[in-house]
Amino acid sequence: MAVTPRKRNQKKGIQPHLGQGRFYFALFVVFAVFASLVGRAAFIQVIEPEQLIYEGDRRSLRMDPTLVQRGTIVDRHGRELAVSVPVQTVWADPQRVHEGQGLANRERWLALAEVFRTDVDTLMARVADPKRRFVYLERKVTPAVADYVRQLGIPGIYLKTESRRFYPVGEITAHLVGFTDIDGMGIEGLEAAYNEVLTGTPGERLYRKDAQGRVVEEISTTAAKQPKQLTLSIDQRLQSLAYAELKKAVRYHQATSGSAVIVDVDTGEVLAMVNSPSFNPNNRTDLQPHRMRNRVITDAYEPGSTMKPLVVLAGLEAGAIEKDTIIDTNPGWMRLGGRRVSDPINRGEQSITEVLQNSSNMGSSKIALLTGVEQLLATYAAVGLGNDTGIGMIGESYGVLQHRTRWSDFEVATLSFGYGLTATTLQLAQAYSVIASGGVHRPLTIQRRAEGELPPGRQVVSRENAEAVLLMLEQVVADGSAKNARVPGYRVAGKTGTARKAIAGGYGDEYVTLFAGVAPVSDPRIAVVVTINEPSGDDYYGSTVSAPIFAEIVGDALRAMNVAPDHLEDTQLRVAGFGGGQ
């Protein structure tokens, strides 16, 4: 059938209208899609770009840290006391473990658990979540363990290099140097006190990688800040000698603990600081808390008769006595406010030197009462009691030195023979170093002083009186109660001390024995104090417990320091000669 021209014309009239609508609809859709894309792009780029930037950087940015070893601690001669060594740490990527079927072979996990000394189920539970990407399995293992882990070849188990602290001399310097935690932060001793000095700042390299792992951009490089080395005033030779003698004595007397310290008289440097019992800082698996205390600075005791030389010094400073004053101690006892002060026997009239030689409570009490409590306390404070020593170590005790407006005569008397106040072993060493240095008080230090950095010190008592007391203390060792402190070849000055330990409501049956002294008297070099806490048995006197230890430590120390003997009269010298016939 033929199509009429009219129908063709009608159809052509409708088609442009419909085509135009479709065109505008399509154009609207295109513009709408374009507008939404532009809006979305604007929203992402302008309003909230951080998330996508973060996601992009997370996939392409990489940062490689530059490891910095913790600073070394060395003694005054450069011998290492604490060093950092590289070790391996075992870690796992749980996602890779699951992807590589790493959990399928239980035998390898049993072997890994055995070498880590842990339960295999606990170990496998750490990698049970496939969404996790990092978990520690064992920190800072030995090289042998690291090699064993490599040989096991468990998928997803890796090694990375870390740093571990190592202490070459172990228990000898454990209380002094301290130790770090698993992350290398100091938590005890000098490691904690000087943590910022010993900790450097790691460097880092920031760069961008493409999908194939190739470096496409170097963004920044930050140089590492190296830590400083800590050089101590400690002489490792003297530290070892003192520790050996102290440990032996504590074991022999079955004492609870013991402490000893050696101080350089001229500089205030601490040359040795030891305690027993000690611990191994390289293996703290079964470490008991009471072994960790640095008792030289933390434990304060009533110092007993080691205070008597300071009483004499206070009396001389106040003008209450002279060097040749005679003290009448008849009848060997006296009552003060209803309380009794006495000597073991009636010693009658005694010179000041004899008061110290015989360790007379009567003599020291009468000197203290003549001097007055204000002058007595002022002298105690001047030589360092009741204050910090300047050493700057964490946990140092100031001891107790009371300042009250009213004191009974009996309380003043007890102050004279070392009761009613407390002091640490280090404070006592500083006090005796003041006597040895001619009345000059210097703050103590645990860091080696550089040449020309000697602090001037303060003249707290007159040189004449300090030297007079020093000579009196020499007689205490030569002919008095401290004969066990003699050191062959050297002139030694010192004083014994025995104090009953205070308990709630009074005093118990335990004692602290002390000896404080100086050597050599002709040119004082070192002040040494030995404290033995709660020795067992009937032998609990400073003259028989602490004095012999002092003698051994001082003798060893002076020889190690190459100090020339100043008292050869008490030694027998063998002269080697050659004989021949004529």
From TrEMBL:
Gene3D superfamilies: 3.30.450.330, DD-peptidase/beta-lactamase superfamily (3.40.710.10), Penicillin-binding protein 2a (Domain 2) (3.90.1310.10). It catalyses: Preferential cleavage: (Ac)2-L-Lys-D-Ala-|-D-Ala. Also transpeptidation of peptidyl-alanyl moieties that are N-acyl substituents of D-alanine. The keyword Phosphoprotein does not apply. It is a single-pass membrane protein. Keywords: Carboxypeptidase, Cell cycle, Cell division, Cell inner membrane, Cell membrane, Cell shape, Cell wall biogenesis/degradation, Hydrolase, Membrane, Peptidoglycan synthesis, Protease, Septation, Transmembrane, Transmembrane helix. The chain crosses the membrane at residues 21-43. InterPro entries: Beta-lactam/transpept, Beta-lactam/transpept-like, FtsI_transpept, PBP_dimer, PBP_dimer_sf, PCN-bd_Tpept. Residues 68-219 form the Penicillin-binding protein dimerisation domain. Pfam families: PBP_dimer, Transpeptidase. Its EC number is 3.4.16.4. It is found in: Cell inner membrane; Membrane. The active site is at S305. Pathway: Cell wall biogenesis; peptidoglycan biosynthesis. Residues 258-554 form the Penicillin-binding protein transpeptidase domain. Belongs to the transpeptidase family. FtsI subfamily. Catalyzes cross-linking of the peptidoglycan cell wall at the division septum. PANTHER family: PEPTIDOGLYCAN D,D-TRANSPEPTIDASE (PTHR30627), PEPTIDOGLYCAN D,D-TRANSPEPTIDASE FTSI (PTHR30627:SF1). This is Peptidoglycan D,D-transpeptidase FtsI. It comes from Pseudidiomarina terrestris.
